[in-house]
Amino acid sequence: MYEYQYIELHVGGGFWIDNSQCAHRDLIEEQAKAGWRYVGYIPSCFTGNGGIKDIDLIFERRVDAGSNEE
Prior knowledge:
Elements: E1 2-10, H1 24-33, E2 37-46, E3 52-62
Antiparallel strand pairs: 1-3, 2-3
InterPro entries: YjzH-like
Organism: Oscillibacter hominis
Protein name: DUF4177 domain-containing protein
């Protein structure tokens, strides 16, 4: 069984915007050190012209079937 974590991240939304400052790589590394595995993203907010403003980064980790964690 797996549990999932979603972390919202603002990525800008403009066509010519440099997203290098949104710190997504640091965030993924932090979560990996805490035992979470990055599995993908889902756009959660769009601009009026179809650009992606915000995303949810998705992480998963295995949960023991016999544990009481929720």
